[in-house]
Design goal:
This protein has 322 residues and is mostly helical. It has one domain. It has 14 helices and no strands. The longest helix has 40 residues.
Length: 322
């Protein structure tokens, strides 16, 4: 009887996994087909465009990209510390990149499950690991959305002061919504909608503001990195810098909420193409958007490789102990 009951359940899970994989392949195929069609139809414009290869700007883009990852890791580690537990920064660093491998599996949840599991291996309790991940990702999403809205609002202004004004309004808005009771209610409402038990955290208003501000810094570094990367390929006016800060947060958020697309593949490229087309012609935006994936993967692969090597060395040391 038990086998009869479990087999249909296992079959349904298997078919769900297959359906997610097929959906991921289909969406990526459709998006890349249209991007390829744009390039094919405008190939002469792409060839004749004023391309460049600026190595210093490319190097600067990698500095900004790596810096954003380092800030993300530091923010999560600080949240862990404020919740009364401790994890070394080096361990948080390898954990973050090792768990990042799982985001290329269809389903947004796998990266965070890997993060959750590895955090417990580093001595973080189940409650603190789960709470810190959920809380920091929620505040990260809030920071990203507000930055994207403010950055695109800045695009309508031609002078630097007019561009900075919407960005400066982010902090007052953040101060209003970052009340601990309000954050707790919103998070637990979201967890209830997902069928998850409520969480509790002992973080002050000051702690929440600090996490929010550092996530803003992380997204600013991301935006600056993307601006430098695009500039390494084609010259862009400095007036585009402030509006450019909103491109990655918007593309990242839309890629994240597409659970069928591993690492937002296809979805993120499509959104990036559209947003970049606000600054450069559509065929050029398509080329830049497609190149952002290998650009990001260089950092992710190096980080994941170093993380796995670190875990392998730790495992050997533990085996060698008497």
């Amino acid at each position: 009887m038990i086998r009869e009951r479990t087999e249909p359940a296992e079959s349904r899970l298997r078919w769900k996994s297959i359906a997610r994989l097929l959906a991921a392949i289909l969406v990526a195929a459709v998006v890349f087909f249209f991007l390829a069609r744009v390039l094919y139809s405008n190939w002469e414009q792409v060839k004749a465009y004023q391309w460049q290869f600026n190595l210093p700007l490319l190097a600067l883009s990698f500095v900004g990209l790596v810096g954003s990852y380092l800030v993300d890791i530091a923010v999560w580690r600080q949240a862990i510390t404020r919740m009364g537990q401790h994890i070394r920064y080096q361990n948080a660093l390898r954990l973050y990149f090792a768990a990042g491998i799982a985001k290329y599996i269809p389903g947004t949840v796998w990266q965070f499950l890997g993060w959750f599991y590895l955090a417990q291996r580093e001595g973080v309790s189940t409650v603190v690991a789960g709470t810190s991940i959920f809380l920091t990702q929620a505040l990260s999403a809030l920071a990203g959305v507000l930055l994207a809205v403010a950055a695109f609002a800045a695009k309508g202004s031609q002078d630097m002061v007019g561009q900075l004004l919407p960005l400066l309004l982010i902090l007052p808005v953040g101060l209003v919504v970052l009340q601990p009771r309000l954050v707790s209610r919103v998070l637990n409402w979201g967890l209830a909608r997902l069928g998850r038990p409520p969480i509790s955290f002992d973080l002050s208003f000051r702690d929440l503001v600090a996490i929010f501000v550092f996530y803003l810094l992380s997204y600013v570094l991301w935006g600056a990195a993307l601006f430098f990367f695009a500039n390494a390929l084609t010259p862009l006016p400095l007036a585009y810098f402030a509006p450019f800060l909103g491109v990655f947060p918007a593309a990242y958020a839309l890629g994240l909420i597409a659970p069928f697309a591993p690492a937002g593949i296809g979805v993120r490229e499509g959104v990036l193409t559209y947003l970049l087309s606000l600054f450069v012609p559509l065929p050029i935006a398509t080329v830049i958007a497609l190149l952002t994936r290998p650009w990001m993967m260089v950092v992710e692969i190096v980080g994941a490789g170093a993380a796995l090597l670190s875990y392998a060395r730790q495992s050997r040391r533990e085996q060698d102990r008497p």
